[in-house]
Structure formats: structure tokens, C-alpha cells
Amino acid sequence: MAYAGAYADLYAGWKANPEGFWMEAAQGIDWVKAPTRALNDDRAPLYEWFSDAVVNTCFNAVDRHVLAGRGDQIAIKHVSPITHSTKGITYAQLQKRVASLAGALRAKGVEKGDRVIIYMPMIAEAVEAMLACARLGAIHSVVFGGFAANELAVRIDDCTPKCIIAASCGLEPGRVVHYKPLLDKAIDLASHKPDFCVVFQREEEVAKLIEGRDVAWHTFQYGVEPAECVPVSGDHPVYILYTSGTTGAPKGVVRATAGHLVALNWTMKAIYDIDAGDVFWAASDVGWVVGHSYICYAPLIAGATTIVYEGKPVGTPDAGAFWRVVQNQRVKVLFTAPTALRAIKRDDPQGELIKDYNLRSLKALYLAGERADPDTILWAGRHLNVPVIDHWWQTETGWAIAANPLGIEALTVKIGSPSVAMPGYDVQVLDEGGHPVAPGTLGAIVVKLPLPPGTLPTLWNAEDRFKKSYLAHFPGFYETGDAGYIDEDGYLYIMARTDDVINVAGHRLSTGAMEEVLAGHPDVAECAVIGVADQLKGQSPLGFLCLNKGSGRDAGDVVKECVKLMREKIGPVADFKRAVVVDRLPKTRSGKILRGTMVKIADSTPYKAPATIDDPAILDEIKAALQTLGLAKG
Ligand code: COA
Ligand code: AMP
């Protein structure tokens, strides 16, 4: 490591003694029974952390702050420019509300280890539901509201929940998202049926409850005994969060209790420089990993105030929305996806709206979820006058693999790099043969096993898939699925995915899953989905459809039906709005579709027909088809 200083010392200290490093970090957690060791490698290459400890997540996120005298401090601030409301919940109130909800769930049979699906929009009750599950040792699985009934059904069948907690509706600008019909349809579609559903009725929409199955959030809590925190072992899963893989079947990332607590608690000070009492705002959604780690758990574990924001960066009502919240809530650290800043920059290029607000509280802006483009970083730094910190992580890791740890030492920012590996992560770049490459050389980014606390120990009910997806390709390493390089100073550069995952507005989507949907259209014989460059959203999905011979269908009609089908099957979040009909797809002689070449053609970047291509003439057909959409210029 070329840099000397607090970060380099810390990293070297971790590397020399990982056990000591994490046992020390574990002191930030209130244990029922403290761990006697950090790493459990009895089942290597599967690892557990603090597995002999006994602990409760909700106690650490809520109760301990009340006991420490912080009961009157705001724990959650719900800010909704969509409903024009702001509501604060103190730690003491949160404790009561969560204990009551947990008590009601318990009274209906939810126990330690049972799964509970949470399908809710950005309201404080979504966080309360997560905490109530953690209080009981029940394992929650939050499903993002932008997913359709079909995706919810897939998750119901995979994690077989005893209960589903939903809201009556979500609110997108100009559109009410009717959760209840989606929930009912998902339960119809799924083979597994939950014992009961809890529905939080919002003022904006009262959903019709199904007798015998559905209970209302408020009424089912009447007269029940509040629940105390149930101790669980360190390796007990606190949640399952599904994320996109190569196929249509999402991967259920498991998060184990103790490692999650220790790691998140450590990150709040070391990476974000947040102390108890500070206001932290992750402008994401509880349905994503950023929402799990940095809207719900980490800020609360650290005794900070977290903002639950129901709105958009623009249009609710304007591009000053973020700055208004920062000013009014005295936000110290804002965490968002670069796409949100690009949306703001597009509406307010000169940052005029930023000048309307007093942003003195803001100390840093953190970006993650997709590659942060230099223009966006520079624009934000210039107008906000605070450090803009890109950091890199994944649903699987739950916290940053690489960052600039402001709480340890503000390292030099290199634009285009999420900076350096955090303690716990020995990040390396390997070639196809698994050999380390020289600094500055592109390769597959991997992390030497074991991964640190807080990262996934396995996939839910899919240990073999876990090993095959992440551990098999490079034995002894975790394969991140990202490609990039490390420079001479140890700074990482994340350049592309090595699989079929694309990133649309900071949302991770599987082109494989989209292709499965298109293949289900009766007139589609063959198809491919690629991610093309998009100025606002980073990438945007685009479909290629080959129709059945003699289908006689109008191409435009089939495209429209496919767009509708994608919304019905995956949901609006897929943002699938464009497809073209072509006669044939370019393939290698062994039949592999040349998606990478199609991306290059669409993005108007230089391309060469691969030597293995079956028929190079098809590339011209693809180019012509893309030009009808205004792509593949030149
Ligand atoms: N429930 C239901 N629908 C949702 C939804 C939710 N929680 N979130 C998004 N959608 C819908 C949107 O309404 C939109 O529907 P439409 O096709 O009818 O317009 C569709 O999904 C696509 O949404 P999105 O990709 O968010 O695009 P957008 O045009 O509405 O907004 C941005 C663009 C850039 C403002 C927005 O994507 C954004 O704020 N992104 C931040 C990304 C982020 O927080 N990522 C989390 C990882 S850190
Ligand atoms: P998710 O699991 O949804 O958080 O998506 C994780 C993926 O998003 C990573 O594997 C990367 O491909 C991408 N990603 C996240 N953060 C960054 C970043 N800071 N820079 C580049 N890509 C990122």
C-alpha cells in the first residue's frame, strides 16, 4: 500500500490480526452472551462470524439507546413530499411500537426462525416491521414495491413465509401503487400460502381485507402483550434479501445476525463518521440493500437519526427536494445513487436551487449502487462544497468493499475510483486463469476468503448455488461479478459486470430474467436483452425479438405487448420500454448470443466481429434495427 497514515495502519492491523480486529469491533455491540471467537471456519469455504455469541438485533438498534438515556431523541424521521407530511418517532416511541407489533405477530404464531415477507413503500412502518421481526428472531424478507405480483410470488415460494406484512398502497408521483391487489395476486400465484397477512391501511387508500387471512395493522395489536427481544445465536439469519443473478430465479442473500451488527456498527463511525445523535440519510428504498443497511439497521444501531424519504430527487416537487430535506432535517451525511444526482443536474444544471438552502449541516455526500461518472462527482463537489465519496458494494456484502473512510482518514479522492479496500476485504484482480494481474490491468475482481462479518454466509436454501455462483470459479476467492483494476496506490476501479446483470437507475436487474419473460410471449421465437448506455439511468434495457416464422403479427404490436408483459411479470422497476424486431440474432458458431458486441453497436463504440461469429452479416442487420431507435450512430 503506497499510502502511509491512519487508514494504512488500520488496514495493515486488520491483515496482521483479523481475529483481534473483529473482536475489538465486537465491543460496540451489546451481547446477551459475548462471542469467544470471531471467525468460525469449521466448514470452510463456508464461514460464520461470532457464531457462539447470543444477541438480538432489535435490542441493539432500539432498546439499548432508550436504556442509555436517548429515548427522547428522534430515531426515524419520515419525510414525504408526496403526502406533504413529516413525522418523527423517538427511540422510546419506536421501542413501544416495535414491541407492540412484535407482540401481535407472536400472538398469531410468528416465532424465532419463521419467515415474514414485508412488501411496503417508504413509510416508517416498513422499518418498524423489519425491527419487529428482528425482535422475535423471525427472518424478514423485504420485497421492493416496484416488483410485480409474479416476482413477489417467486419470493413467497422460495422463503415460505408464515406471514406477509404489506401496506394498502404506495405513492409514486402521479400514481397510486395498489399493493393489496398485487399481494392477493402473488398469493394466488404462489404454491406456498402464508398463514396470515397484516395490512397497514394508509390514509390514501383503504384496502379490502380478506376475512380469515388478513388483519389490519392497528386492530391486530389491540390488547396484546408487547414482546421482549428474543436472544438468537450469532449465526441466526436476521434477513433474506433477494437480488438478481444470471437466471430468472433471484438469489436469496442471507444476512447473519452478529456479523451484521458488528460490521454495520463499525462502518458508521469508520466509513461515514457518524456518531449517536447525528442525522444520516440514505435516499434509497427499504427494498434494496442500501435501505436495509443504511436506512434501517446501521443508523439505528449507531444511535443516529435515520430519514425515511418518500419522494424522488426531482419532481416532488422540484430538483431542490434533496437540499430541502438536508436543510430542514440537518442531515450530516447524505447517501444516494449517482443517477439521482444526474436527474437533479439535468433539471438544475447550474445548481441554482442548491443556493436556496442552508446546507451547513452537510459534511459529506456518499455515492454507490452504480459507477459514479466523473461529471456527476465534479458537479456535486462544486455545488455542495463537501467531499463526494464514491464507494463500492453489493447486496451480497451488505457494506462497502471499497470506500474512502472519512471517520478514519480522508484519503485523496481519485475521480472514477471508489478508493481503497476496507479492512476485512483482501481485494485482488485475477485473469481468466486465476492469476493475479499487474496494477492497472483489467481483470475479474475477487475477494480472498473469508469475507468479513456482515457479508453473506450462503444463499437461502441454496448452498450449492452459493458455492457455484461465488466460490467455484476462483477457488479460495469470492467472485464479485465485477471487472476492473487496481492502480499502483491500491485504488480500485470498477468498470463492468462480468455476468448478465445490468444496472438501471442504481437498480440491479437480470437480463436473463427479462429474456425469460420475453420468451414467454407466444409470438417470440428467440430473444435477447442487453443494457445500453443511458445518460440518466446509467443503463437501460433493450430487447431484440425474433418472431415465429409466419406469425404474421405486426412488429410494433408485439413490441408493445412485450413492454406490457415485462411490467406485469417483473414490474415497473425493470423500466423495459424499448425492443426491436430482427430476423436473426448474432451468434458464435457454438450458438452463444453475442450480447457484448450488440451493446457496443448500440452504444456507438468501435466493435469488431468476433472471430467465432457464425455470420458477420447479421451485425449490419442489428445495427440497422438499432438505428431505427436512434442508437448505433456512425
Ligand atoms: N413502487 C412502485 N413503482 C416504482 C417504485 C416503487 N417503490 N420505484 C420506482 N417505481 C416505478 C416508477 O414509478 C417508474 O414507473 P413508470 O415506468 O410508470 O414511470 C419505474 O418504476 C421506473 O422507476 P425509476 O427507475 O426509479 O425511474 P423514474 O423515471 O421514476 O426516476 C430517478 C428516475 C433517477 C429519479 C430515480 O430512478 C431515482 O431516484 N433513482 C435513485 C436510485 C436509487 O435510489 N437506487 C437505490 C440503490 S442505492
Ligand atoms: P446491488 O447488489 O444492487 O447493490 O448492486 C451491486 C452492483 O452494483 C455491484 O456489483 C456493481 O456492479 C454496482 N456498483 C455498486 N456500487 C458501485 C460503485 N461505487 N461503482 C461501480 N459500480 C458499483
Give the key terms.
single chain, 634 residues, alpha/beta, Rossmann fold, 2 domains, 17 helices, binds coenzyme A, binds adenosine monophosphate, AMP-binding_CS
Chain-wise SSE layout:
Elements: H1 6-16, H2 18-25, E1 39-40, E2 48-49, E3 54-55, H3 57-70, E4 74-80, E5 85-90, H4 91-107, E6 115-119, H5 124-136, E7 139-142, H6 149-159, E8 163-167, E9 169-172, E10 175-178, H7 179-189, E11 196-200, E12 214-216, E13 232-233, E14 237-243, E15 251-256, H8 257-270, E16 279-282, H9 289-301, E17 305-309, H10 321-329, E18 333-336, H11 338-347, E19 364-367, H12 374-384, E20 388-390, E21 402-403, E22 420-421, E23 427-430, E24 443-448, H13 463-471, E25 477-486, E26 492-497, E27 501-504, E28 507-510, H14 511-519, E29 524-534, E30 538-547, H15 555-569, E31 578-581, H16 595-602, H17 617-627
Parallel strand pairs: 4-17, 6-7, 6-8, 8-11, 11-12, 16-17, 16-18, 18-19, 19-20, 30-31
Antiparallel strand pairs: 1-2, 3-13, 4-5, 9-10, 14-15, 21-22, 23-24, 24-25, 25-26, 27-28, 29-30
Helix pairs in contact: 1-2, 3-4, 3-5, 3-9, 4-5, 6-7, 8-9, 11-12, 16-17
The protein binds coenzyme A and adenosine monophosphate (AMP).
